[in-house]
Structures are given as structure tokens and as C-alpha cells.
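call fold(seq) -> C-alpha cells
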Amino acid sequence: MNSDKSNMFTKQIPEIPKNTLALFDFDGTITFRDSLIDFIKFAVGYSRFLRGILLLSPVIFAYKLKTLPSWKAKEAVLTHFFGGWNSKLFDEKAMQYGSRKLPDIVRKVAFERLLFHKDAGHEIVIVSASIENYLKHWCKKYDFGLIATKLEVVDSKITGRISGKNCYGAEKIKRIKERLNLAHFESIYAYGDSPGDFDMQRLANEKYYRWKKMA
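ret:
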């Protein structure tokens, strides 16, 4: 677990109603590093990762220039590294990563806040554009709910394509509303770190952006 500098969440926090929902983005909010890149390195090895990034440089460049949508860039990366993988082998690697390596990139401030909500009896849901295969193992360990991007599997093989839509921006709201009855909650907290989280944060009465409370 990575340690952050002292933060407001180490101080006393006012009591929050028990029927509270806490929505957390994952990459950049809970973690200090991109979990998908970290997973790829873990799954294929650093040498193959570097070779792949060189081959994918035109895709990455187009994404950085915003001429290629994030979901297309993600599919290109996933297809290159995992297209054709047996889904069982892929899930085994995902389980190993989610259980052993993922905790190493979790921010201390984030984990403390997650435990605060959990101890208060609040419903916690991680809402992420990252792939659910490795996130589900980490979330299951702590009994966190999960809404994330799913990967397509055909004939027991990973294609590299996204099943449905990338869980980003407005898709986060759609998936949240499909999963939860928001009218049930007296209070909703939302935590994010990028413009892709703004839609989700509009659902909340308590919003945090990069761990600073928003007006």
C-alpha cells in the first residue's frame, strides 16, 4: 500500500447517514498508477510490454492527440496483448494480479476513505473504465460492489474487444442507474480524478475531485 502525505481524511469525519452510497472511480482516484498498464506488465512481462508499446505507438499518439476515442485505443491495446488468449488463462492472471499486485498501487488516503464508508455501513461501489477481470478479485476481498468494463469472449478466447460499452463518462451513469435505485439513498458521495468522472459526480450531493471537496 502506497503511503500518501497526511490528509483531511485522517481527521475526525462527521457522522453520515447509514443509507449512504459511496461511488469511487478507480484509476487515478483509488490508485496512483494506471492499473491496466500495470496488469499488462504483470501478465506478459516487461520486455514484451515494451515491444508492444513501440508497435502501438501510432495508436497511443492518436489517443494523446484526441483523434482516437479512448475505447478504440483500449481495444487496440487489449487486442495486441491478449487477443486469442484462452479466457481461463486470462482470468487466472487477472486473479493473481488482483490479489497480489493490485494492492501495491492503492493510495493510502483512498483505502482509508473506503474503510471509513465500510465501517459506517454504507454501500460502496467501484465504478471504473478498467476491466472487471482483475478488479473483481480485489473488490470481493473487501466486499465492495463493482461496475466496470467487460471484455468480449468468443469460443473461450479473449478477443480484445469490449463487451457492450467502455464504462466511462455518461456510461457510468447508465450502468449505476441500471444497478441501483438511487432514490433509496439519503446521501450519495462520489470520488473521481478526471473529466470522465464528472457525469457520475452529478449524481452526488457530496463530491470529491482528486481528494478535494467540490462546492
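Strands lie at 20-24, 123-131, 145-154, 157-163, 187-192, 206-209, 212-213.
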